[in-house]
């Protein structure tokens, strides 16, 4: 069982912006070459539990010992409270400033009062995104900004261009994602899309799969979550629906 001070120590760890200590730098030097060619370790921080060191690679976390002899892949969970320290830490590291998102490069859908706001990265050829789009259709009082994040194929780029360049982008996107109906008119050659900008943004934010949902508090949920999960998340950040 983890000690009570572990959680407080983790909070301190999550908020720390201090430079790596000599020991942490040594661990980083040892562990990086053991993770494979081309893998770059962003930071190493000594944790308050069991002498482990947190190794951050992009938006992911693994753990190692002080000699980097062992790698621990998985979640550190408080056996008494059920608190998932690793998940909380990953959420903290991956937080964004929602107001910095270039929303002019996204589709905008408003339902009801639109007060509950999310941004979603989706690929037009992503089956999970199509399933998630059906979930979004069941929600009310939401504003959804959709970034067409074309990472699956060149065909994704072509489909997104036809949708972006159509007379009603939101209608075209929903018709494709929900009904498999693509706009009949081909996008004109001179139509400029935000593909490059959105692609660069997704890479910067470590969006490695679609769908990826961002909330106004800066946190994210990867994957095609259900309506119940979305409602619980909205409630947790003070965006519960009106009764």
UniProtKB/TrEMBL annotation:
Keyword field contains Signal: yes
Transmembrane segments: none
InterPro entries documented for this protein: DiS-bond_Isoase_DsbC/G (IPR033954), DiS-bond_isomerase_DsbC/G_N (IPR018950), DiS-bond_isomerase_DsbC/G_N_sf (IPR009094), Thiol:disulfide_interchange (IPR051470), Thioredoxin-like_fold (IPR012336), Thioredoxin-like_sf (IPR036249), Thioredoxin_CS (IPR017937)
A Pfam family reported for this protein in Swiss-Prot or TrEMBL: DsbC_N
Chain segments annotated as coiled-coil in the UniProt record: none
Source organism, top-level taxon: Bacteria
Residue intervals of the Thioredoxin-like fold domain: 110-232
Cellular compartments annotated: Periplasm
Keywords: Disulfide bond, Periplasm, Redox-active center, Signal
Residues in Disulphide bond isomerase DsbC/G N-terminal domain copies: 19-86
Keyword Disulfide bond: yes
Signal peptide: 1-19
Function: Required for disulfide bond formation in some periplasmic proteins. Acts by transferring its disulfide bond to other proteins and is reduced in the process.
Sequence similarity: Belongs to the thioredoxin family. DsbC subfamily.
Protein's recorded name: Thiol:disulfide interchange protein
The species this protein was found in: Undibacterium squillarum
């Amino acid at each position: 069982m983890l000690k009570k001070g572990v959680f407080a120590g983790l909070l301190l760890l999550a908020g720390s912006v201090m430079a790596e200590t000599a020991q942490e730098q040594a661990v980083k030097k040892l562990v990086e070459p053991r993770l494979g060619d081309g893998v770059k370790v962003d930071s190493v921080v000594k944790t308050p539990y069991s002498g482990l060191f947190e190794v951050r690679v992009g938006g992911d976390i693994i753990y190692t010992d002080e000699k980097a002899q062992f790698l621990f892949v998985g979640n550190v969970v408080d056996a008494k409270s059920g608190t998932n320290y690793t998940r909380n830490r990953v959420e903290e590291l991956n937080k964004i400033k929602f107001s910095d998102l270039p929303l002019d490069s996204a589709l905008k859908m408003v339902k009801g009062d639109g007060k509950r706001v999310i941004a979603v990265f989706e690929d037009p050829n992503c089956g999970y995104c199509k399933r998630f789009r059906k979930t979004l259709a069941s929600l009310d009082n939401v504003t959804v900004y959709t970034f067409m994040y074309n990472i699956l194929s060149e065909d994704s780029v072509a489909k997104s261009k036809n949708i972006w360049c159509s007379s009603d982008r939101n209608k075209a996107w929903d018709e494709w994602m929900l009904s498999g109906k693509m706009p009949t008119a081909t996008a004109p050659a001179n139509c400029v899309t935000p593909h490059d900008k959105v692609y660069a943004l997704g890479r910067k934010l470590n969006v490695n799969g679609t769908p990826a949902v961002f909330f106004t508090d800066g946190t994210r949920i990867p994957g095609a979550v259900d309506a119940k999960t979305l409602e619980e998340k909205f409630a947790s950040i003070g965006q519960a629906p009106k009764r």
